[in-house]
From TrEMBL, chain A:
Its main location: membrane. It comes from Salibacterium halotolerans. The chain crosses the membrane at residues 6-34, 46-67, 87-114, 134-157, 169-191, 212-234, 240-258, 270-291, 311-342, 354-380, 395-416. GO terms for cellular component: plasma membrane. It is a multi-pass membrane protein. Pfam families: DctM. GO terms for molecular function: transmembrane transporter activity. Keywords: Cell inner membrane, Cell membrane, Membrane, Transmembrane, Transmembrane helix. Residues 6-414 form the TRAP C4-dicarboxylate transport system permease DctM subunit domain. It is found in: Cell inner membrane. This is TRAP transporter, DctM subunit.
From TrEMBL, chain C:
One of its GO terms (molecular function) is transmembrane transporter activity. It is a multi-pass membrane protein. It is found in: Cell inner membrane. The chain crosses the membrane at residues 21-40, 60-78, 99-118, 138-161. This is TRAP-type C4-dicarboxylate transport system, small permease component. One of its GO terms (biological process) is C4-dicarboxylate transport. GO terms for cellular component: plasma membrane.
Length: 425, 345, 172
């Protein structure tokens, strides 16, 4: 019955039915066809899926993202990044990555990064001797940081679906995110130096101080967010509300990018966007119920354990599987559908669920920039006017590097789990 | 309602079909004519938690006694109802769950008299608690849920609740002063702990571990297996055996499923559910000793509350009886319960 | 936006106003729920810091959140924003695409009709369930599902007849 559901789901999805509706309808048909269970279970599961406090961080992070987008915060971040790393070889490439890194500490979605700091970076790079293709490739790869580094909407979703502490999962992305950013900057440096492309700015301490002061209120956001959680003032979910309030205040009072009159529209869009994103979670819960009823997670765990009991090998298999899934499926949907199915396997082979959550989010965030289904890819195409094919071609080398980086984390899982204990988490 | 899911996740157990497949006329007797029924049995906690262990024991016994004519598949960790306890009750009544063990506090949301079981410092000891459950006062509540399509088989006991925190051992009410204590969303808890001087704080269970660790809250209260299974010992210094409140597992079966099986099968299920009450009590008693030892080994300080101090807590609870009476929602019933435990005022 | 309405008769104009009013009300409610959500979670933090935690924050947060999500779901259909995969459909010729589009529309309508009725029936079950702190019937929370189903159907229809969609058809 699980197989039937999955096949039906892909059929519906491929004919362009909204992903969430596809999941819901294929679950309903499956329950109706294979059991005499009353169909009320559908409404009940959908209701239960959102009867959760933890998930509340999602709309609050979305609200923060929208306010930052409209509040000219991205521009301040870009200027500050330019002053700090713009004078290096491959200057604006570094600025692109560094701006995404800072943005990642304030906002939780990769698409938002592409649309805000990405847009500014691409324009600036293009005007300063970098090809549009290269600028877009750097933008896309660096947008992964927004999902990996706290705060992160996907991380909240994955952690709450897996029953892992969201505080731990959020912080666990910090060090891997910094490592990824560093590697990307090194590659950008080597590439630009070799090909001798791109202008660089001159190093100016005065400019650094000036742009820092401008960006300071924005830069304080991650400090308040992470510091507040670590010092016990608020929980990770509550931190999302604090972040939203703080960005609201700086956007209205300090940067004046948002007026009071615009607020109702912002709140409305938050509700709409959250509903649109989490609709998939709502219907995925029905599918999960069918899978559990059918015993699928247990069967998969038994099967995988019989293939190998080496966690590293299992992780490599999962890695390939998630890469493929990420190419064809929305990351949110993949998390909701796959986490309950894969978790028993993870437990059976002794992989730390915290590691799994962070790793899964990293792999699926990679899927956001790959064709054929990648929201960031489409956003970038929309901004630059380049076709999906052109962008994808220029992103290939970066993608190979990203895959190598993800493999590093399979081989050294401590890079993800160990730092949380340094933070006393 | 309080059904703490502990940190670990249950392994997904395999299940057979679903509810009872249409049995023929029930008049026939004898094993040979009995059709095999497959029953799913959901519990809120992971595989190693005592309620899920008990459910598995129940499954084994029923299968053995019925010569395999009743198959029970246990699904722990709330996996069959998306971890939403209220959903579980609806699903049980409507037939997408066949059997369910769930805390009486969740049932209290639709039958407020279940709240009486959890009145703070109601019982002198565990014997009295079990006596109340088995008395007509307890059993009549199981009758009351019949309307929603649930056949309440019996109560299975649960350990009393204890307080853990990182400020000081709780020996008497004054030790609670100003303590940020995470409690379930329920006036029984909130009113009692407020009256005792604590600062009862609502918080989703999923955030409790980190909140204890980072000092967002000072402590929490739950039956002793929760701090063990959710690793709270890593982030808490004291566990105080306050025995302040209790709840009970309501073990229910979908009425239609129950009515469709043979009377012999019905007897097997009913009798096994009854005998598991004593089994779980003994299991919990053994486990409690082991768990307290575990907590000590992990560096937690364990303290008991003296009879004299216990009385101080009882008095605080009594000072809130007028509010608890509202929560129970039935004066006559409330008075009868107080009479039964010898605490009528 | 006004072109199809302008040359239409009086009746459609009235209908158009009614549609606008319903949209305004849902938009406002959705936005208001976002604000309430933010305020309630902030209240929880402040309450704890002041050692005066109100007991209702976790409960209210959950209920506001559920309503917000289900309203948000329906809003995603007014301009066809619910994520879908058009990659494969676009491989087909135009005519086939139109047929496929009709099929997906009918299935989506069917899904929400189904949700409406099972949602109502769930409310029936939730009627007697009272929330522990706020003492409200959970059916009030469950109401969000039939409402969301109705609004989704309403918005889907609105999208179908919207000028934007007409334009698309015209291009083809
Ligand atoms: Na981020
Ligand atoms: Na970037």
């Amino acid at each position: 019955m699980s197989i039937f559901l999955i096949v039906l789901f892909f059929l519906f999805m491929m004919i362009g039915l909204p992903v969430a509706v596809s999941l819901g309808v294929s679950s309903i048909v499956t329950i109706f066809a294979f059991s005499d269970i009353p169909l009320n279970i559908v409404a009940q599961s959908m209701f239960s899926s959102m009867n959760s406090f933890i998930m509340v961080a999602v709309p609050l992070f979305i609200l923060t993202g929208i306010i930052m987008d409209e509040g000219n915060v991205a521009k301040e971040i870009f200027n500050f990044s330019k002053s700090v790393v713009g004078w290096l070889s491959g200057g604006l490439g570094h600025v692109n990555i560094f701006a995404s890194l800072i943005f990642a500490g304030m906002a939780g979605s990769s698409v938002a990064d592409v649309a805000s700091t990405g847009r500014i970076s691409i324009n600036a790079m293009h005007q300063n001797g970098y090809s549009k293709q290269y600028a877009t490739a750097v933008t896309l790869v660096s947008s992964m940081l927004a999902t990996v580094i706290p705060p992160s909407i996907l991380m909240v979703i994955a952690a709450s679906t897996a029953g892992v502490s969201i505080g731990q999962a959020l912080f666990a992305g910090l060090i891997p995110g910094l490592i990824i950013a560093l590697i990307m900057m090194v590659i950008n440096y080597i590439y630009c130096k070799k090909k001798n492309i791109g202008d660089k700015t001159t190093f100016s301490p005065k400019y650094i101080v000036k742009s820092f002061l401008h960006a300071f209120p924005a830069l304080l956001a991650p400090v308040i967010l992470l510091g507040g959680i670590l010092s016990g003032y608020f929980t990770a979910t509550e931190a999302a509300a604090i972040a939203a309030l703080y960005t609201l205040i700086i956007a209205v009072v300090v940067y004046r990018g948002v007026t009071i009159r615009e607020l109702p529209g912002i709140f409305f869009r938050t509700a709409k966007l959250t509903g649109t994103i989490l609709f998939i979670a709502v219907t995925a819960q029905v599918a999960s119920w069918v899978f559990e009823f059918d015993g699928l997670p247990g069967q998969i765990a038994a099967y995988v354990s019989s293939v190998s009991d080496n966690p590293t090998i299992i992780l490599f298999l999962l890695f390939i599987f998630l890469l493929i899934v990420g190419m064809f499926m929305d990351a949110t949907a993949a998390i909701f559908v796959l986490t309950p199915i894969l978790l028993p396997t993870i437990n059976a082979v002794g992989i730390d669920p915290l590691f799994f959550v962070v790793f899964m989010v990293m792999v699926l965030s990679f899927g956001l920039i790959t064709p054929p289904v990648g929201v960031c890819l489409y956003a970038a195409s929309h901004i630059t006017g380049l076709s999906i094919e052109e962008i994808s071609k220029s992103t290939v080398p970066w993608m190979l590097i990203a895959i190598l980086m993800l493999m590093i984390f399979i081989i050294f899982p401590d890079l993800i789990t160990e730092p949380t204990s340094w933070l006393n988490l | 309602g309080e059904n703490e899911n502990t940190s670990g996740n249950a392994e997904g157990s395999q299940t057979g079909g679903g509810s009872a497949e249409g049995t023929e006329d029930t008049g026939e007797e004898g094993n040979n004519n009995q059709e095999t029924v497959s029953i799913n049995f959901a519990t809120p906690d992971p595989e190693n938690a005592s309620i899920t262990v008990a459910a598995n024991e129940f499954a084994d016994r029923v299968e053995e006694k019925s010569d395999g004519s009743i198959e029970v598949e246990v699904h722990g960790d709330g996996s069959l109802y998306g971890g939403d306890p209220s959903a579980a009750i609806n699903q049980l009544g409507e037939g997408s769950l066949d059997m369910l063990a769930l805390s009486s506090t969740v049932y209290a949301n639709s039958e407020s008299k279940f709240n009486a079981i959890s009145i703070p410092y109601l019982y002198d000891d565990k014997d009295q608690y079990i006596d109340l459950l088995n008395d007509d006062l307890g059993q009549q509540l199981l009758e009351n849920i019949k309307d929603s399509g649930i056949n309440g088989l019996n109560y299975w006991p649960r350990n009393f609740r204890q307080i853990t925190n990182s400020v000081n051992p709780i020996n008497e009410p004054s030790d609670l002063e100003g303590l940020k204590l995470r409690v379930p969303n329920n006036p029984l808890w909130v009113d009692f702990f407020e009256a005792a001087g604590a600062n009862p704080t609502p918080m989703d269970f999923g955030e409790v571990y980190n909140a204890l660790q980072l000092g967002t809250i000072d402590g929490q209260e739950n039956p002793v297996e929760i701090p063990v299974n959710a690793n709270f010992y890593e982030v808490q210094d004291y566990i105080s055996m306050t025995n302040h409140m209790a709840d009970a597992w309501v073990v229910g079966i979908n009425s239609e499923v129950f009515n469709e099986i043979s009377s012999e099968q019905q007897d097997i299920i009913q009798n096994t559910a009854d005998e598991m009450q004593q089994w779980l009590r003994e299991y919990d008693t053994d486990q409690t000793e082991e768990m307290i030892q575990t907590l000590k080994d992990q560096g937690m300080e364990v303290n008991e509350v003296s009879d004299e101090n216990q009385q101080k807590f009882v008095e605080i609870s009594q000072s809130q009886y007028s509010s608890f009476r509202d929560v129970v929602g039935d004066d006559e019933y409330f008075n009868k319960v107080l009479e039964f435990v010898g605490k009528a005022q | 936006m006004s072109s199809p309405e302008a040359n239409a008769g009086k009746k459609p104009a009235k209908l158009y106003t009614a549609v606008k009013v319903v949209n305004k009300i849902t938009d406002f409610t959705a936005g208001a729920l976002t604000v309430v959500l933010l305020i309630v979670v902030l209240t929880q933090v402040i309450g704890r810091l002041l050692e005066q935690s109100p007991p209702w924050t976790v409960e209210l947060t959950r209920y506001v959140f559920i309503w917000m999500i289900f309203l948000g779901v329906s809003l995603g259909f007014r301009k066809d924003e619910s994520p879908r995969i058009t990659f494969f459909v676009n491989l087909f010729p135009q005519k086939t695409q139109k047929v496929i589009m009709m099929v997906t529309l009918i299935v989506t309508y069917g899904f929400f009709v189904f949700l409406f009725f099972t949602g109502l029936s769930l409310m029936g079950q939730q009627m007697d369930e009272i929330s522990p702190v706020l003492r409200v019937s959970i059916a009030w929370v469950g109401l969000c599902m039939p409402v969301s189903a109705c609004l989704s159907i309403f918005n889907l229809t609105q999208f179908l007849f919207s000028p934007h969609n007409e334009e698309q058809k015209g291009e083809k």
